[in-house]
Amino acid sequence: MVFVGSDAQLTVPTAVKIVIAGGFGTGKTTMVASVSEIPPLRTEELLTEAGVHVDDLAGIEGKDTTTVALDFGRITINTKVVLYLFGTPGQNRFWFMWDELATGAIGAVVLVDTRRLDSSFPSIDFFEHRGIPFVVAVNCFDGSQAYTVDEVRHALDIDEAIPVVLCDARDRESSKSVLVALIQHSMNRLAAV
Amino acid sequence: MTGRDDWWYDEAAGPLVRPYAMVRGRTRPNAPDLHLVTQVRASSFASDQTSLTVEHREIMALCARPLSVAEVAAYLDVPLVVVKVLLSDLIERGDVLVQTSTPKIPDRDLLQAVLDGVRGI
């Protein structure tokens, strides 16, 4: 690892990230909260509507400034590695933010609510088109699940190679198993290259 | 002169003056490659801090342990773009150490470590 600075005895961990995506209300922040070692943090990016960084004060007083909020959590893997979990901001307007989130990510969890399957289509398209490993996690609200994994896979028209799992985003063990499925999927993808 | 006071208040973004006053209007950090998860840490040989602003010093205190840029922004409660500028000031001074590598897809060993770690929590 290369650092800018002189005191080489200070080490800085390697950071990795997983993106938690899905439509509005599918449980993204709930999943982050259930596995994170800290209460989810929120950070905000100020942006112009066009998503272009402004150069000076003259650019920011207009009404076209907006805020993108990112919720994220942290899991310290060991002294050398730390994992961050980022919930994606609202879809459509903030794709450029998704690009930053997805760059170098282990992969993504696409959370699905079977009552609103279509809300997960943009997320699935995004990761498919960029070749980013992802798993589909069906969030079983209230512990009930009206559809089988195969039915969900068929309805979403996703490749056989992509894992589809059932989960309860509120439950730590359940959310952990989703992350494990994603990491294993990423490792399989790496091995297949 | 009604409205003068809320000139710098944006309904969605909140108060705009303070974050930008903190960075004297700069919105482009000098230090490149400050991503969301880029790890930063205060140097043990930090220079004289008397010339630093309160925000710079808060960052130095936060970064006594390694943190990501996103965590620093969240704990400081300022937008990412502002914290990147403040961090770049500290990096230029040599007061903050930074991981210079850009995010890249983890290799198998790193994935295995993450897998073991997640299973163990």
TrEMBL record, chain A:
**Keywords annotated in UniProt:** GTP-binding, Hydrolase, Nucleotide-binding
Which GO terms label this protein's molecular function in UniProt? GTP binding; hydrolase activity
Pfam families from the UniProt entry: ATP_bind_1 (PF03029)
Top-level division of the source organism's lineage: Bacteria
- Gene3D superfamilies reported in the protein's UniProt record: P-loop containing nucleotide triphosphate hydrolases
| Coiled-coil intervals | none
Query: Belongs to which family?
Result: Belongs to the GPN-loop GTPase family.
What protein name applies here? Signal recognition particle receptor subunit beta, a GTPase
Q: Which organism is it from?
A: Lentzea albida
From TrEMBL, chain B:
Highest taxon listed in the record's lineage: Bacteria
Q: What is the name listed in the Swiss-Prot or TrEMBL entry for this protein?
A: DUF742 domain-containing protein
